[in-house]
DNA sequence: TTGTACGCGTTATCAC
DNA sequence: GTGATAACGCGTACAA
């Protein structure tokens, strides 16, 4: 407990350096950060003293004096699975390139509690069936809510700006952050006045995907996923799909966005005689689970049932059958969020900027043999002409 | 650039709260942190003022005054692939539970440059063949080295302690950290005086794995991996394998520990007529790549060639064939590192503590039909009795 | 070119 | 129970 050394754990202060170099602390500071003039000889002495004493400026001292942290934060729900990790990679890379540290916060299973979960169908909401969706230990309502609020406040206090994934932080906490004028970028969150939002496109990609499946001749569908809040990615994907397929698609909820959850839900869904011809999954991990379930049930994908994913994670290409999916630029999402945040911090008033990144429909074999385009046209001409952008196995990056 | 508000971006200071509540800043501080006595009525007024002004103590001010950051750091090479992400999950969870923030630093492709890469065979080193292993843009030697040093110093300056993965930070930088008396935990790094190290067991697990494969009757082997520094995990795995198999195992280097790298290297390795009967991979991702390569070449796994991995990532269980591997407790590794670091920060002098976590040999189908134990015994009795701990598909966690 | 002195926002030690 | 006030380590006008 001699921990009174916030200065890089070395305890050496600028005063000691100054004394050793025979100058004032102002000169040391100038010599070190190149602000203001310093005579060559003086600089030499200072640098030598710094070297000998292994001086590193105390981060807390610098932050206090500079009025900034030189650190940015990011809030995500978890790191299991490739999606958030990929976004984080892009975010960390750019942020660190900009000379700022990265502070992370995972909200894990902490419940937002005030939200109702389900899929919205034209205003109404379908409640979840299947396993109990309360992933948390039973407790007072709002418990996780308050815990998250505290954690986010703590984080907000030590960074110059924050990136927050949709559905990880209660909206009133978001509002609080906006009100505090903390530079804020929301990823995959409904647009919000005062905050910059960024996401990959969902609705029209979903329409294109659904249309493609119609072209295969499928007529009964299930949408497999665990949607959370209105306006989040999966909710939008559902909307796009539902728009094209109407009552032909049936929503089925999983507990989480994981392989295991997808497997379990698909096992139930495909175990019945009136199983759908195609299962559109909220994301690749759920889809991989669905493929496993089909295999378990002795069903062939895509002959007995077609399966599609979303994201185009690494495993999607390596799955058997290779997974038809919608590729979204995960790393770029993180990278762009980092840059937008940096601009905000620099003072840019790009508030109320809402950017959407393009996606790409990746047709592989899990949705069946690819019919000729002309055939597709017969089914839904105008829809197809507007959207469908495909790519056969064009390598990412 | 009105950024002079390091206090949670709100700009409200303890002085304003004090004035509004009609008390001194000392009382505000006491009321807020429960140190020292405060009259009930006074406390009420203070708390109300805090609420009304939305006051949050400036993190920089607190850090300076308290002499600590309430944040811990972690340095890893990258986040692509499940391994480091899983360790980070465990680390973040415990650290955040302990009330501390998590600052991350990814060294990415930055080269340590002074290291020679290869596999050590009884003192000698085999240089890498295959693709050029310099993953970086050509540059001055030591360039990445210095970049990492600066980044690590920066990180070290804003945390109370650091967890560092082996082979991500040059040894002299590690020594510098140790010398600065910054609480430090090294994961999968050779033991180092003054630093706590933590890792999963490698050598004897590798021996058990090799022994198991011998039991299958295989007689020619390849060890597929991209070893980096002496004493890192893969180096130890190689040592264990080599100890049992001797000249029957041939080391083959990949460019990275990724599916792609494993695929490419395995494609070359298995494309020849004298391909090994079994490929022992440094980790699951490389192994998944090897399986893909075999498939590409029309070879059956395990009938034509056996493949094993290491780690037991999620995909290992779902691969086809399911991957025989060595399970290591990735999340627990991160969690334990966090706890050890916390103890160090709290003042515990568990320096020179070197803990090794147990692993578990997971036999699945990628190494062939499982022969009866008695048969194994005939081959290498004493070796087996000492080590082999198997488990058939016992679910992790 | 260099030094002095103040401010950054808290915590904590004393007196009162 | 409460209030001055001295650290904490650094950046930077301003003066010299």
Number of strands of chain A: 15
Largest sheet of chain A at a glance?
6 strands, parallel
Subunit arrangement of the protein: homodimer
What's the overall average pLDDT of chain A, rounded? 85
Separation of termini of chain A? Answer: 50 Å
Largest interface: A-B, 63 and 64 residues
Helix content of chain A: 40-55%
Helical stretch tally of chain A: 15
Radius of gyration of chain A: 26 Å
State the name of the first-level CATH class of the largest domain in chain A.
Alpha Beta
For the biggest β-sheet of chain A, the strand order reads 2-1-5-6-7-13
Tally of discrete structural domains of chain A: 3
Class computed from helices, strands and strand pairing of chain A? alpha/beta
General shape of chain A: elongated
What fraction strand of chain A? 15-25%
CATH topology of the largest domain in chain A, which one? Rossmann fold
Order of helices and strands of chain A: HHHHEHEEEHEHEEHEHEHEHEHEHEEHHE
Describe this structure in words.
2 copies of one chain form a homodimer. Chain A is an alpha/beta fold and 397 residues long. The first copy, chain A, is 42% helix and 15% strand. Chain A contains 15 helices and 15 strands. Chain A has helices at 14-21, 25-33, 40-53, 59-66, 82-97, 143-156, 171-179, 203-215, 233-245, 259-270, 284-296, 314-318, 330-346, 373-379, 381-387, and strands spanning 71-76, 101-106, 119-121, 124-126, 161-165, 184-187, 196-200, 221-225, 249-253, 278-281, 306-308, 325-327, 354-357, 360-362, 390-391. The first copy, chain A, has a 6-stranded parallel sheet, with helices on both faces. The longest helix of chain A is centred in the last third of the chain and has 17 residues, at 330-346. Chain A is elongated and about 85 Å long. Mean pLDDT of chain A is 85; it is low at 1-5, 113-117, 122-141 and 373-397. Chains A and B meet through α4, α5, β2, α6 and α12 of A and α4, α5, β2, α6 and α12 of B. β2 (101-106) of chain A pairs antiparallel with β2 (101-106) of chain B. The structure holds a DNA duplex (16 and 16 nucleotides).
